[in-house]
Amino acid sequence: MMHAYRSHTCAALNKDHVGETVRLSGWVHRVRDHGGVLFIDLRDHYGITQVLCDGDSAACAALEKVRSEWVVRIDGRVKARDASLVNAKIPTGEIEVYATEIEVLGASDELPLPVFGELEYPEETRLTYRFLDLRRETMHQNMMLRSNVVRWLRNAMWDQNFTEFQTPIITASSPEGARDFLVPSRLHPGKFYALPQAPQQFKQLIQVAGFDRYFQIAPCFRDEDPRADRSPTDFYQLDIEMSFVTQEDVFAAVQPVIQGLFEHFGKGRKVDSEWPLIAYRDALKWYGSDKPDLRNPIKMQDVSEHFRGSGFAIFANLLNNEGTEVRAIPAPTGGSRKFADRMNAFAQKEGLPGMGYIFWRKAEDGSMEAAGPIAKAIGPERTEAIRLQLGLDLGDAAFFLGGKPEVFESVAGRARNEIGRELGLTETDSFRFAWIVDFPMYEKTDEGKIDFSHNPFSMPQGGLEALNGDPLNVYAYQYDLACNGYELISGGIRNHKPEIMYKAFELAGYPNSEVDKRFGGMVKAFKYGAPPHGGCAAGIDRLVMLLADTTNIREVIMFPMNQRAEDLLMNAPSEPTLQQLRELNLRVVPKES
Length: 593
Prior knowledge:
Helix content: 25-40%
Strand order of the largest sheet: 6-9-10-26-25-24-19-12
């Protein structure tokens, strides 16, 4: 007695099955009519099998009616393909199934986007019909990759003696650096729960409760403005917390997991095992970013001294102002006027007046000479000093940006990336990691107030004593893991002492009463014997995005929102019914136009 739908999957048959009668079910991937012989590629989750019939088959009349993406059951005999027609690319490439019977299980309307052929389609269409989009091979592979990554991470964490716990999804509001999604309470009119931006407080409480090495594949919810590499509503992270650890212990626990993951799923791309520690301030200085792409060897340098009091008035005058400097971006092999002009145009596109440059070429007498307006203005001695500092030679160039670092740093970082790419200096097919450490605990807001620059729960380096000086000089035990220009992990050693916590929040303008109100549970817990603890979280979507070699995070999320935080398939957000509003004691106030 044969199964109602299938005896085999569409990836299972090979030449050992020749002569057998089989039953397959799946989607019609494509139909090809070769004058009297009809070929159908039948697809399911596992793969594709070629089905054929001719005028002699009883199934032929019915098969002629089927179209792409119909779901059908086909009975038939397994035949060996002619040697010249074997398709070595697929597991079923040595056989085909001669159809004797067909049943349509689910017909399809005309398709709004084709599954076969992986054509480019507007994202709005793809998200509205996501169930069709997900049938495409690349998307199917991305989702399977994601699933396998999550399973691999889970196993790796258990192997490292971590234990998985679940934390609440409906909880209290907590400042994690983004907006909360609020959930109205029916039982407590006028009060709201929040969806967790991260399980931050709970994972710390798990440590206080005495469960040493915790992890969770945790959903996190943030009401964010969308970006290509960030989901605007929810995302998943590998959440980790450990007790009695230093920063180095966290790094030692995380590296084998992340490095192992990239080695396992990286498809042979080189995975760097040297993970340097770079101070936040140095990352900005050398790379113009706190998530540097180290596949690019270019390191920027401060060359202010060579321009102070020089004949290049723009920079010389600039350096008279406090807090300004001139930085050089070395460009090995970029020593041509053509390349310099191209980079100048890039700077103008980024909104700068341009980028100064010097390049070194062969003079008529065979010696090396420095060319460009800056070289003329500052003279040969200073030019030579710049060349020696940057370690440049004949055929190389350097580009310059000046002003307040916080103003030009990010453009300098983008210029560095552009130069590395254009000159072919940036490695491809590799993953390079770096821990960014020593983040400043505080920053000045535009209004001149002191506020946390990162996670408010990090331990300040130097403890309570450090908080008695200038807050802007305090570093936190706060770290990020950067890979190929993306931030993969963020974490810190936590502040587990109530008196240090109160002081840290006081400097950011939160009185003790506010701390008790907002983090009452955690502060209370710390008064009953809290272990030193720390951890981090890795963005699952971003890990998969890098492994899948895409720059759009929506390509690795099964049912993502669009750029405007709308779910086009389920039509969310939607308006509540009057009854729902009444039950929640809510009224919607129309927006003033």
